Amino acid sequence: MKILLTNDDGIYSKGIEVLYEHLSRDHEVQVVAPEIERSAVGHAITLTDPLLVKPVDRNGAFFGYGVKGTPADCVKLAINEVMEQQPDLVVSGINLGANVGINVIYSGTVSAATEGAILGVPAIAVSINTFRNPDFEPAARFARFLAGQVNEYGLPPHTSLNVNVPAIPENEIKGVRVTRQGVTRFVESFERRVDPRENVYYWQCGSTPPLQEDDDTDACALANGYISITPIHHDLTNYDFMESLRRWSFPKVTD
Amino acid sequence: MKILLTNDDGIYSKGIEVLYEHLSRDHEVQVVAPEIERSAVGHAITLTDPLLVKPVDRNGAFFGYGVKGTPADCVKLAINEVMEQQPDLVVSGINLGANVGINVIYSGTVSAATEGAILGVPAIAVSINTFRNPDFEPAARFARFLAGQVNEYGLPPHTSLNVNVPAIPENEIKGVRVTRQGVTRFVESFERRVDPRENVYYWQCGSTPPLQEDDDTDACALANGYISITPIHHDLTNYDFMESLRRWSFPKVTD
Asked: Does B234 lie at the interface with A, CB-CB under 8 angstroms?
């Protein structure tokens, strides 16, 4: 397959390098990724700034393009301009830190995969559940395996796969679970400070609450030692509520 | 009600001023909004930069806080730090330009409402279908009406309302339709340029394709002169595909 590889930790990150090494054994891999870390950018795209693109040679690990933009920008630009043919698969990762539950909507890693799905290309986002001393190998091996599965089975339109891998020794991983996205909220906090010119500013912090998710969620599978795979799409409609909403009274617009 | 008012065009925009004027007739309105335009930022949040907060006096129109952050940052910060009590409603807008179809996932306006829903507060996003010579009055009047309806009927958990108002004379608006989000893709293009130091950069442009959406979508209702209301949530799971995905073969992770 022709694979477009991107991430949100930036083209110089270790996660993309390990993933390249594994995927390029079987496939032709083109890297187009943000030149710097663009975590938590959600599905941002860049319309009001120019997208600077620079060739990046990762000292023999791979050659690719670094973009002064978001992960979603990278996917759009790669498919529209950089690659001569539409890729067969978009892979995003390996992200440092899980993208489960509510974090999915803030995730640049996942939005790159979603952007692939929007543009009609099957896509996989891969994250590991740690920020420290990561061993990317198990996740890279699984991503390579899953790429083959996607090639064999295909994905429905507008759908990508959000994969999270536990940060435990590979032989302790219990298996794979197909999950739904949990929706338990992130608990954020803000630390108030005053700068030397007496301006008020805040640092935004967040913590994951004690696991309150149901058994069938991504967060729960991951916490229990399973690789979670959640099929996601970008239709945000709450269909269940449409009929109730239609019963609200909507007169003509008046003052 | 206590209403938190925000937007993605910035605290100095006309749309937020008109909306404030209408909502404050019946409600206590607190404005916390980006200090500059933050369009197309999707659900970005700011974790790696400080969030500078400045009091803003809009020359008698209103007093509020301008934040060096995204719309989602503003909602989190307002609810966690600025407001003494949790608001009863979050209103985001009035945005210049429709947020229908695929644009919904790139929209800062909609993400502010989604953030309200995540934090347990009912929320409405309001956009008008033009970028030029906007008349915000019909949309502001409808937003005020709809705020009352939400107060009366309530919204289910994790759900907000994405409202789009046609840019036509108010007496020509045909009525209100409860719609689903269309998923027809945006057609983007990139204009390649070279800067004076011979670096390559691109401007990202986009155009809306000829209307191919089904009758029951937001884009179709809007194009036909109706106000569209789409109930949205932030569970991205593609439930329909879960069973098929479970039938894929997932052996233990091996090289």
From this structure: yes
- Provide the domain count of chain B: 1
HSE value, Cβ hemisphere, 13 Å, CA-based, for A131: 2
Whether A115 and chain B come into contact, CB under 8 Å, resolves to: no
Tell me, what's the ipTM? 0.89
Using CB atoms, pick whichever of A43, A246, A252 lies closest to residue B43. A43
Tens of pLDDT, residue by residue over B62-92, are 999 999 999 999 999 999 999 999 999 999 9
Query: Which B residues, 131 through 160, put their C-beta within 8 Å of a C-beta on chain A?
Result: 138, 141-142, 145, 149, 153, 155-156, 158-159
What pTM does this model have? 0.92
The answer to whether residue A189 is domain-embedded is no
Residue B161 lies inside a defined structural domain of this protein: yes
CA B8 – CA B91 distance, rounded (Å): 11
CA–CA distance, A192 with A215 (Å, rounded to integer): 37
Its domain, for residue A6, covers: 2-181+212-237
Q: Which amino acid is at A155?
A: L
Residue A64: how many CB atoms within 10 A of its CB?
24
Instruction: List the CATH number of the domain containing A65.
Output: 3.40.1210.10
